[in-house]
Design brief:
This protein is about 0% helix and about 65% strand. It is an all-beta fold. The model has no long low-confidence stretch (mean pLDDT about 95).
């Protein structure tokens, strides 16, 4: 991996890969009225048995307390995937994804999506020579099974999408972009993300996964909490630790500590559906994700409560066994 790609994970990483490799970008769009949330995952699957490009779409619609979930997996020949690593962009057929705009023209028997959305005021994470991306110094290693990148913790959206026969407006609403690449997803993990708090400056990413490493496994933690321009990072590579973990019935609770800071998180995911995920580059596994979750956050500094809020429109994946 080049230093440019390490510091800018949005760029296509897999140009030298031929087999047992996947790469996928995760774009999340929350509608103006917050009733619709759309997640689009463009990517490629490089496996000798079934090489192809894809766009996975996930639409959540909530009305009068009831949530409907729709999804579809659009397959494309590998040659339909193109990329530009000078000014980041990827294209899959007639669909374009950049950090400035997204243009969608998708249709199958399950879901019809079309429209254009413009992105502005992206919020990248803080990085440094020690921590070039969200993975910290692990981002420099070239043998990890799965890599994770955060492109924007929060940004503004303008545009419209046609979802089947309905028009969804995105006017000064919020979006989020991250990505994954490598061989396979972790065998067990919890992930959630939201940037819809009563304090509009707040955004949160949480990931706690079982990571294979040099023939062993360790529990890898990444938490990034952004509040009023200040970033609170809790990660394995900076000494943060999970003090307590509780998983039950679509709810996860964590107590995380790093130095003088302590973070309490409670995430609830009431509605989930199955999405395709990679194993050895093939999109043959399934994960469960919801887009209508909530996350309660409490941040302490030397046991003094310094921030408390509750995020909504949370994307949540719970792929760990319930603790007995």
């Amino acid at each position: 991996m080049s230093l440019k790609k390490i510091f800018h994970p949005e760029y296509f990483q897999g140009n030298r890969k031929k087999n047992r490799y996947f790469e996928g970008w995760y774009y999340k769009f929350v509608g103006t009225d917050k009733r619709y949330t759309v997640a689009l995952i463009p990517g490629i699957s490089l496996a000798k048995a079934d090489p192809h490009a894809f766009i996975q779409a996930f639409v959540s619609f909530t009305d009068e307390g009831k949530t409907q979930l729709e999804k579809s997996y659009y397959r494309f020949p590998l040659k339909a995937f193109t990329y530009n690593n000078k000014n980041f962009s990827i294209s899959i057929g007639d669909n374009i994804f950049t950090t400035d705009h997204v243009s969608i023209r998708l249709s199958d028997d399950h879901l019809v999506l079309s429209g254009d959305i413009h992105l502005s005021q992206l919020t990248p994470i803080r990085n440094s020579l020690f921590s070039p991306n969200i993975m910290g110094f692990f981002g420099y290693l070239n043998f990890m099974e799965c890599y994770h990148g955060v492109v924007s913790m929060s940004h503004f959206l303008e545009g419209e999408l046609q979802v089947n026969e309905k028009t969804i407006g995105f006017h000064q609403s919020k979006g989020y972009i991250e990505k994954d690449w490598g061989r396979s997803f972790p065998r067990a993990y919890v992930w959630f993300q939201t940037n819809h708090f009563s304090d509009p400056t707040t955004s949160l990413l949480f990931s706690y996964a079982d990571i294979p490493f040099l023939g062993q496994h360790f529990q890898g933690l990444i938490v990034n909490l952004l509040v009023r321009g200040k970033e609170y990072r809790f990660a394995t590579y900076n000494g943060a630790k999970i003090i307590t973990e509780k998983i039950e019935n679509g709810r996860v609770q964590y107590l995380v500590r790093r130095g003088r800071y302590q973070l309490e998180l409670i995430a609830d995911s009431p509605n989930q559906t199955e999405l395709a995920s990679p194993r050895d580059g093939m999109m043959i596994e399934q994960i469960k994700e919801g887009l209508t979750g909530s996350v309660a956050v409490r941040l302490y500094d030397h046991k003094k409560l310094v921030y408390e809020d509750r995020g909504t429109q949370a994307g949540i994946e719970i792929m760990k066994a319930q603790k007995s």
